[in-house]
Amino acid sequence: MSSGGKATRPGWVKALGILGELLITGAAIIGLFVLWYAFFNPWVVGLQQAQVAAEQSRQLTKELQSQKPTTAPLTQAPASPSQPSGAASEPAASQPAAPAASKAPANVPVMAEPAHVADTIGVIYVPRLGSDWRRILRESVDTDRVLNSVTAGVGHYTGTAMPGGQGNFAIAAHDIGYGNSFLNLSKLRLGDRIYVQTSLGWYTYAFRNFQFVQPDAVNVLDAVPTVSRTAGADRFITLTTCYPAVFPPLERVAAYGTFVGFDTAPPAELAPLLAKDG
Amino acid sequence: MYRAFWRILPGPVAVRVAILAVLLAAVLVALDLWVFPWMAATFVNDQATVGDAP
Lengths: 278, 54
Known about the structure:
Mean pLDDT of chain B: 89
Strand order of the largest sheet of chain A: 1-2-3-4-7-8-6-5
Largest sheet of chain B: none
Number of domains of chain A: 1
Radius of gyration of chain A: 25 Å
Distance between the termini of chain A: 64 Å
CATH topology of chain A: Sortase, Chain: A
Shape of chain B: rod-shaped
Strand content of chain B: under 5%
Structural class of chain A: alpha+beta
Structural class of chain B: mainly alpha
Oligomer: heterodimer
């Protein structure tokens, strides 16, 4: 307390004091870092990711509207299975007569996989993750350019099916950190919708189940997840993120879903959110 | 260390507090922009993907 006593302190006591202050400073920085990583940065990044996703979505909608005349035959095709009124307008000779065709229309337009890392595929919406949750979906699961990027957040495993394609459409995002994109993934319930908007239209998937796997379990990305690498008529979606959220994440969680349908019009469930965009 | 720093700061207490606040804000900005991103990239295992992908 008194400045008089301080002058008589030996050098090693002063050195210990400085060391102690440095240690306290370091502890404070580490504590701040944890708060930054778990709360502040995901909040800032998440806001940016949602913002650019909203802009991208608006742009895709505009593109779709401007394309509509030219792609008219294409957009009619997926509607035909929902009209079981006898003769199909489309020649179905090239389609395999799959029994699953009733629940998954065969004539779904599928975009080609982008050639470059971080190319935009579309915008993904999962209402269960938040009523205003949406992210831009980019090609590859590159950490810096896709998963950690303020203009993305969700990445598409290169080589897996594209939205609506036969096989497995596999994507990944962070649980905690950089936008917290899949923080609430474990809250998905049976039948929850997963929507993907591309320049062609809206693809709808329904969540089915979780599987907790080791980090090297690449078979969750298989065309028929964990069963077969050969794509059949079925169309799946697989969402992966780290598990548990507490570090280190020693496992991964895979959320599986199945394809429901394709439409050029936005899904009714998203109408309130899309209306807010104007 | 911090006591010595406090003594080095010029002016009356109010001015010293003001200087400290500005310096502290600068330190926080530097942490947010450079130090924490570096720490995250260096020390945090945040892999969300399966397989060999980074």
